[in-house]
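Throughout our pipeline, every protein is held as a single compact record rather than as scattered files. Such a record has a labelled line for the sequence and another for the backbone structure tokens. The remainder of this section carries one protein's record, kept here as part of the documentation:
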Amino acid sequence: MNAPRAYTLGLRAAGAEETRNAIVDATLTMLTQRAIADVTLESIAALAGCSVRTVIRRMGSRDRAIDVALATVLAEAEGDSPSTWSSVDHGLASIVDHYSRRGALVWSILSQEAAEPRFAGIAQIGRAMHQEEARRIVQLHDERLVNDEELVELVSVATDVATWHVLITTHSKTPEGAGYAMRRIVWALLNDEGSPP
């Protein structure tokens, strides 16, 4: 007798989670495509395929929807810890994968950080994470170079989202082409082919 009710509650919970995920995805899309001031409950709801009332019921407010969406992206990035990378190419592939999925969002956050305090905080966390990634790439190449701050800095620049952005927008690279170009730059640095005479 209790089985149908448990089944119904399970379906309801799955539906609520699906709606929540759609709202998070819609919020991230809006943050990628628009200035944060232009991200509205109405735009989130329309893209998520639900009502404004549902967004408020699931998230509480527009600001909470934005905070949850940003926390989701941070959790994604933290989930692929550089400590799990097994090689330079594994690390580079991880960075390129992240930029392929979230590069436009990261660029949007960076372009608005001066005007939006919550973006400034996210940007600082992202910079620290990226520095750790660059150091890990150097370490995977040669443990003895891990404290070569200039090399770590150059690898950080070569793998930065700004480099990705330039390759995609200015040089019309595909994500695969941008990843290949970044890989070539990093390997040139690691093999010391970029040292001035």
